[in-house]
């Protein structure tokens, strides 16, 4: 079981409130991703759940039991750190067995569980090596192995993939998702990378300055961002946000349109502009168009390869059904 | 990393070290300050049980007023100053030399550092007897070889002798620290200067020396603190005679030889104040370094 | 610096450096050499660099006459004991300062350092008085305590700088893995810091071994270590060069060897981390 409740959780360092009172309910077996720009308090929040930071107020309940003041060891949670935090002086086997040793399990049981975890994580051949002799991906797997042997009620991941190169990151992402499908244990995952959030999460918590901007499934966030911050943060490439006269024509302070929801024509359309840089990815083409009456270039995404060149004149037409409208406070108008 | 748990644990774990050092500092210090205001001559029957006479600042005045005070200040300054000049100057030269590529760097480094590990009593006695003895010492042999009259080092050149012995002991320290500092100098900087056409001397003056500035300051401050309290080197050689009675040694004699505790304690307070002034400068540098 | 240097220049540098190195080392070399001569040969003019009768007699005489082994044993006990005790007190303190820093950490560190600057002679009488009161005069335990206290700031500082290099996340990982404070320090921190702790021990054994104010002033016969043993040669026995040399060689040999292992840590320890 791993049902985690944050009840008016608050954190202040001296006079600086980094997390104003915050409520969140994480259901058992859920994969929840905390995402936000650096400094938004997502790591602090995770560390508070872990018990590595104190709360300045509020309560944390794990499976209904108050864990606010419980030391980390008593919470039944496991954590995977950004730097992996493996014990450099211990072999992989002893690293993975460490939590079991601390729990006082007998040697045979330790060996059995370590072997099982190594099997799952493809580490069987590396058990007698030191962390220093492993590659980044393997170290990551050892860190995960150390977390799973304890059979915790929830896993906490603190930007676990940020030290890996791009190719490995995609692979590990799949492995962690696979692990979640197999174990069905609650996972809380912190990242600044919205792609990780979108691809892995059951539910995403978008944070800014310690505050929850929106909570929802990846598609909810994509389809109906609650405000301009979420709109701009979720989705790649970023949603185009346009304010001024064009926005007021749609009865909003700001309008947002995703690059994939803009039609391109060389003969006529709503916005007229000139093509700047275009990025050819093979499967898609992104190009940036400087439009009349819009200060920032508009990003457009077109499937496949299109014959548009730098300097060409084009007309753009946003799909009216996919247009997001925001009011003066940046909140979504429904 | 900071929870109430870990913070209270931290306080608890720091307690033994803090309490011990606090006791080590405060208890004797308080006693010294206390004695410095008392007349306390155990040989004349003064004792703590019978109570000591309060004499105000008389001890302080008498310590400074005594005929041996200024000579001792002079001896202290000469020894400390002499050793500092020699070790820092030679230390810089040696550090630059050892930084050059040559065969057997490791071995030479070990040879140069070795004197630092020799206990003070040994180095003082070896120098005094085997090198500076006017009859059988190595220097006497050397002097005679060149047809000169051997020098009675310990009586005729006593202060210089002490300076030589102590410099030999501390040169490794200065060299080692300056060498470490030189090695941390970015060689690209020097290469850039070389490319810019700067000659060797100006490269040394404008790049190496400023880079060493902090290390030199540290060497000076740390050595000063240790040199102010050199004791064994004097104790086993001249015993404070022939103008080698430093402030430290004078205080030692007041307390141990003449058993004038009050006077010695007043001297001790002076020494503590002096050391603290120097320490203050050292702390500034170390403290600044901590922030980085 | 991997710079190309011409061979003639390298030869010249080698010659100069070796000459200076040997010159600086000469007094130690000469002491060791003389310890193997007879007394007559030790004062021969011109000095004998070779061709003397190699003898171990001086060592035997020194041991026999002044019971060298007892002083050696005292030195070992005092230097080792004070270092060990210091480490036991300093490890938890350094843990606190390195991993749970507070606003006062820096002040405490600097204050500890400042106790090191206290001139020993200023507190000589009070310490002797306390030693008499508590029956510590001329005891090993008394010296162990004093040397532990005077070196404690250095031990704390060195450990602190070594601990600082260990990422806090690893200790947090241990905490998450269910380790208590004691286990965290015992199973994770200490093994990781072994090289640092070893150098700290080494440097402090050297400092304690060579300490020559308190050891001379607080001991008489039974607890006197090698520093005091050598001081007893100040006169007139010092004129027996071969004996003096043998005694000196025995007093410095162990620490010379230890010292060569610790030269790198020396800088860090003695500058309180200000020069690395």
UniProtKB/TrEMBL annotation, chain A:
Pfam families: ABC_tran, TOBE_2. InterPro entries: AAA+_ATPase (IPR003593), ABC_transporter-like_ATP-bd (IPR003439), ABC_transporter-like_CS (IPR017871), ABC_transpr_MalK-like (IPR015855), ABC_transpr_MalK/UgpC-like (IPR047641), Mo/tungstate-bd_C_term_dom (IPR008995), NA-bd_OB-fold (IPR012340), P-loop_NTPase (IPR027417). One of its GO terms (molecular function) is ABC-type maltose transporter activity. Residues 4-234 form the ABC transporter domain. The keyword Nucleotide-binding applies. GO terms for cellular component: ATP-binding cassette (ABC) transporter complex, substrate-binding subunit-containing; maltose transport complex. SMART domains: AAA. The keyword Transmembrane does not apply. SUPFAM superfamilies: MOP-like, P-loop containing nucleoside triphosphate hydrolases. Keywords: ATP-binding, Nucleotide-binding, Transport. PANTHER family: MALTODEXTRIN IMPORT ATP-BINDING PROTEIN MSMX, MALTOSE_MALTODEXTRIN IMPORT ATP-BINDING PROTEIN MALK. Belongs to the ABC transporter superfamily. This is ABC transporter ATP-binding protein. It comes from Histidinibacterium lentulum.
From TrEMBL, chain B:
One of its GO terms (biological process) is transmembrane transport. Its main location: membrane. It is a multi-pass membrane protein. This is Sugar ABC transporter permease. The keyword NAD does not apply. The lineage of its organism: Bacteria, Pseudomonadati, Pseudomonadota, Alphaproteobacteria, Rhodobacterales. Keywords: Cell membrane, Membrane, Transmembrane, Transmembrane helix, Transport. Residues 73-282 form the ABC transmembrane type-1 domain. SUPFAM superfamilies: MetI-like. The chain crosses the membrane at residues 12-37, 75-98, 110-127, 162-182, 215-241, 261-283. Belongs to the binding-protein-dependent transport system permease family. InterPro entries: ABC_transporter_permease (IPR051393), MetI-like (IPR000515), MetI-like_sf (IPR035906). It is found in: Cell membrane. GO terms for cellular component: plasma membrane. Pfam families: BPD_transp_1 (PF00528).
TrEMBL record, chain C:
Residues 72-262 form the ABC transmembrane type-1 domain. InterPro entries: BP-dep_ABC_trans_perm (IPR050901), MetI-like (IPR000515), MetI-like_sf (IPR035906). The chain crosses the membrane at residues 12-32, 71-96, 108-135, 141-163, 184-207, 213-233, 240-261. One of its GO terms (cellular component) is plasma membrane. The keyword Transmembrane helix applies. It is a multi-pass membrane protein. This is Carbohydrate ABC transporter permease. Pfam families: BPD_transp_1. Keywords: Cell membrane, Membrane, Transmembrane, Transmembrane helix, Transport. Belongs to the binding-protein-dependent transport system permease family. GO terms for biological process: transmembrane transport. It is found in: Cell membrane.
